[in-house]
Design brief:
Serine Threonine Protein Phosphatase 5, Tetratricopeptide repeat, two-stranded antiparallel sheet, 4 strands, about 5% strand, disordered N terminus
Length: about 190
């Protein structure tokens, strides 16, 4: 086994993260896709355990093996957010949407990814305190909107994404989320 392979990883359930014990990496699983999957599983294990810096490392490795997998960018953004790096989290969110804009319409509640959902609330409170000081930080507002969007707070998410566009009208990620959350009504055909 090379030093680039994870020693252990945990199974991941479809649509969510589990807390099962890590499993061994088999020598037959050394292609980039399987290594990326194992690193995501390991990251999920660390994330659920509240070991966010280690989750960042594992998800970063997964991203190096699957650089075009938008979902890997999202889970890495979650871990980076949990460490308080809002600007890198915003970059990763934007990159995920560039790769797969349809993820803006995904249905999930990211609070369930945490071992203790109160940790998510504490992280959101820290982000809100940061934004009380840095009112014009469009990247942090994007991260706020993203977290609101995936914690079942649609109206607050829409307001956050609109705030991003007030500050940075060219922010494509905020626009993709807004289009997914509040689609524009079709224009009426002209009357003849």
């Amino acid at each position: 086994m090379s030093s680039d392979e994870p020693a252990q990883a945990e199974p991941i359930a479809a649509g969510g993260r589990e807390s099962a014990q890590p499993s061994e990496v088999k020598s037959s699983e050394v292609n980039p896709e399987s290594l990326a999957r194992k690193y995501v599983e390991l990251g999920d294990y660390y994330f659920k355990a509240g070991r966010f810096a280690e989750a960042v490392e594992a998800y970063s490795k997964a991203r190096s093996y699957a650089p075009d997998d938008a979902s890997v960018h999202f889970v890495l953004a979650d871990a980076v957010f949990a460490t308080g790096d809002y600007h890198f989290a915003a970059f990763l969110i934007a990159e995920a949407l560039r790769l797969e804009p349809g993820l803006a319409s995904a249905e999930t509640d990211k609070r369930l990814f945490y071992g203790d959902p109160k940790v998510f609330d504490e992280q959101m409170a820290a982000l809100d305190r940061y934004l009380d000081i840095k009112l014009y930080d469009a990247q942090a507002h994007l991260v706020r909107g993203y977290n609101l969007r995936f914690s079942d707070k649609k109206e607050a998410a829409i307001a956050a994404f609109r705030r991003v566009l007030e500050i940075a009208p060219e922010n494509r990620a905020a626009q993709v989320f807004l289009d997914a959350l509040a689609p524009k009504a079709p224009e009426a055909p002209p009357k003849v």
